[in-house]
Amino acid sequence: MNIVVCIKQVPGTAEVRIHSETHTLIRDGVESMVTVFTMGPPQAEAALREAVSYGVDEVVLVSDRALVGSDTLATAYAIAKGIAKIGAYDLILCGKQAIDGDTAQVGPEVAERLGIPFVAWVRKVEEVGDGKIRVQRMMDDGYEVIEMPLPALITVVKEINEPRLASLKGKLRAKKLEIPMWSAEDIGVEEDQVGLKGSPTQVMRIFSPEPRGAGERLEGEAEEVAQRLAERLKVMGFV
Fold first, then answer.
1. DSSP run (H or E) holding 47
2. Is 238 inside any structural domain?
3. How far apart are the C-alpha atoms of 68 and 22, rounded to whole Å?
4. In Å, what is the CA distance from 124 to each residue of 93, 97, 102, 137, 151?
5. What Rg value do the Cα atoms of the chain yield, rounded?
6. For 26-67, how does the pLDDT look when each residue is reduced to its tens digit (9 = 90+)?
7. Has this prediction a pTM greater than 0.70?
8. Which 3 state secondary structure label does DSSP give 70?
9. Domain span at 26
10. Residue 89 is assigned to a structural domain of this protein
11. Which of 6, 104, 151, 160 has a beta carbon 3.0–4.6 Å from 97's, enabling a disulfide?
């Protein structure tokens, strides 16, 4: 079975910087941690080496200035093109969302681009074989079991497994491995469909929320507190 795993190198939450003009994340030179996908700047190679140390067979980095600023639609288009270049696959694994954009859109959009079925929020793979996969999809009040044909794509939640520890053999291989890097031209994307030019959604403004003032604690008997709270909400226009 051929499995494609999409990972993404995202900025550490304490190191986030935003470009003042394009309103996109500045990823170069930022200490990062691994979460989802392989399209990014050359430094994303570090995330791929970490994946190799865990035991993956092959890695590919898609990196090109033409891809900078891509929204989820343009990103999914480029990923789908890259996966198509890889060749035959049975299953594509994605995280449910990345902690930078936090949209949870890319995985489903990749499946749509490739024309394959998908299930989001997968917490367990029950069975794979005979051209189909059966999974448990997490719900608010439990889970549901879904079966679908292969090839397919699933986005997984953190409960899916416990990451293995990197082996010494894997670390040595990761250190020596030459990471293949594909350009936008290599994967055959149309330039007007990627980057800021190919992104229908645009970030108009980014700002830090104003700090809130100190809260107020209402004390007393329940009925009295409820009455005071109702009056306060009415004055504030909430009721």
1. helix 45-53
2. no
3. 10
4. 12, 17, 22, 7, 17
5. 22
6. 555 544 326 234 677 788 888 888 888 988 888 888 889 999
7. yes
8. coil
9. 3-210
10. yes
11. 104
